Amino acid sequence: MNTPKLRAAIVGSTGYGGVELIRLLASHPYVDVTSVISSSSAGSPIAEGFPHLTEIRADKLDDVDPALVSEKADVVFLATPHGVSMKLAPQYLEAGLKVIDLSGDFRLKNIEEYRQWYKHEPASQADVDRAVYGMCEIFGDEVEGQSFISNPGCFVTSAVLALYPAVKAGWIDPDSIIIDAKTGVSGAGRGLNLSSHFSEINENFKAYKINKHQHTPEIEQSLARAAGRPVAVTFTTHLVPMTRGIMSTIYASQQERRSAADFVELYRQFYEGRKFVRIRPNGQWPATKEVWGSNYCDIGFNVDERTGRVTVISVIDNLVKGAAGQAIQNLNLVMGWDETLGLQFTPVYP
Ligand SMILES: NC(=O)C1=CN([C@@H]2O[C@H](COP(=O)(O)OP(=O)(O)OC[C@H]3O[C@@H](n4cnc5c(N)ncnc54)[C@H](OP(=O)(O)O)[C@@H]3O)[C@@H](O)[C@H]2O)C=CC1
Ligand SMILES: CC(=O)N[C@@H](CCC(=O)OP(=O)(O)O)C(=O)O
């Protein structure tokens, strides 16, 4: 007898995260996308705005109505802006759906930090407490069987996967960490704004939100768990003229001098059996094209003989491992399935 597939709905289907969920879930063996949802274009065929999606089964955009969604689906992905997810998630949970939220609304356990960094009224502490933070390779054990997952931020995924093992092992001084990150423009979503306008971004390279980026406390929240004490990092983001991809170049002082080969060995042991974190051999560093369109996070190391500082380079595709891919990986963990289901593809190259 064939087991029926899990039925999935996607809110925010007309945004970059939503469209990426549709693309990836189309090849998931145990999931059917039965509802694609739009708050602004319900009733229209999704292929009207996205002709490359002509073949999907749930072709007409549905309304966000929780009663309707709970009739059509078992799990709902929220690929919605922050401020919107905090209103929708409790309603879908109440309607009996599992919820996987891609926004920042439920990631910070201290809601005052949310107020400070997002400059927005937070979700209630009770709702934040219900959400399980799904950084799969690190806290994935906490996800199985849960109904409400908060998917990590894109920069956070790249930075924390690159730092957690070294902080946990006590190899680097947590107070010395500097994360210099670059992102492609799709990280800003599909909406139009001046900073992602072609002539503003093309042949340009700019820093933004210096010491004010909303992912700073989220990075610190996970590193504090590794260090067993509060941690403060320096984090600078840059917008670069590419569509997808994040590279975090990270610097830290070592507690004792170790070689890059030692770091390779430590990280290989830490991530043993986790297919989506690939540690480069000593002497090799990853580039964003080497993970493009895939759920991989690739990490490489160098140690400066003169200063003793370690440089860690980490790359992801912001829309896959940084958003839709990790959200599906979280669904796999929730369901007790192999975490790689529906995500086993090779990066697009060149
Ligand atoms: N882009 C990225 O690389 C990453 C994004 N994220 C997070 O994922 C979420 C989605 O991001 P992204 O896809 O880039 O954003 P987009 O701006 O591309 O899409 C967001 C979608 O949300 C829908 N929406 C807006 N307001 C409402 C509302 N009131 N009710 C229901 N739906 C609404 C819109 O669709 P419609 O008008 O059709 O309803 C819109 O298409 C955000 O929280 C973002 O921070 C996280 C990691 C990486
Ligand atoms: C290029 C760009 O603007 N990127 C966004 C990425 C953040 C994001 O996607 O939002 P979450 O906080 O939900 O992860 C930014 O830097 O704010």
Automatic annotation (TrEMBL):
Active site per UniProt: 154
Pathway stated in the Swiss-Prot or TrEMBL entry: Amino-acid biosynthesis; L-arginine biosynthesis; N(2)-acetyl-L-ornithine from L-glutamate: step 3/4
GO MF annotations in UniProt: N-acetyl-gamma-glutamyl-phosphate reductase activity; NAD binding; NADP+ binding
Short name of one Pfam family: Semialdhyde_dh
Gene designation: argC
Family of the protein in this entry: Belongs to the NAGSA dehydrogenase family. Type 1 subfamily.
Enzyme class: oxidoreductase
Domain Semialdehyde dehydrogenase NAD-binding, residue spans: 7-146
Gene3D superfamilies: Dihydrodipicolinate Reductase, domain 2, NAD(P)-binding Rossmann-like Domain
Organismal lineage: Bacteria, Bacillati, Bacillota, Bacilli, Bacillales
PANTHER family in alphabetical order: N-ACETYL-GAMMA-GLUTAMYL-PHOSPHATE REDUCTASE, CHLOROPLASTIC-RELATED, N-ACETYL-GAMMA-GLUTAMYL-PHOSPHATE REDUCTASE, CHLOROPLASTIC-RELATED-RELATED
Name of the molecule in the record: N-acetyl-gamma-glutamyl-phosphate reductase
Purpose of the protein: Catalyzes the NADPH-dependent reduction of N-acetyl-5-glutamyl phosphate to yield N-acetyl-L-glutamate 5-semialdehyde.
GO annotation (BP), single: L-arginine biosynthetic process
SMART domains found in the cross-reference section: Semialdhyde_dh (SM00859)
The protein's Enzyme Commission number: 1.2.1.38
NCBIfam families with a match to the protein in the record: argC
GO cellular component: cytoplasm
Catalytic activity: N-acetyl-L-glutamate 5-semialdehyde + phosphate + NADP(+) = N-acetyl-L-glutamyl 5-phosphate + NADPH + H(+)
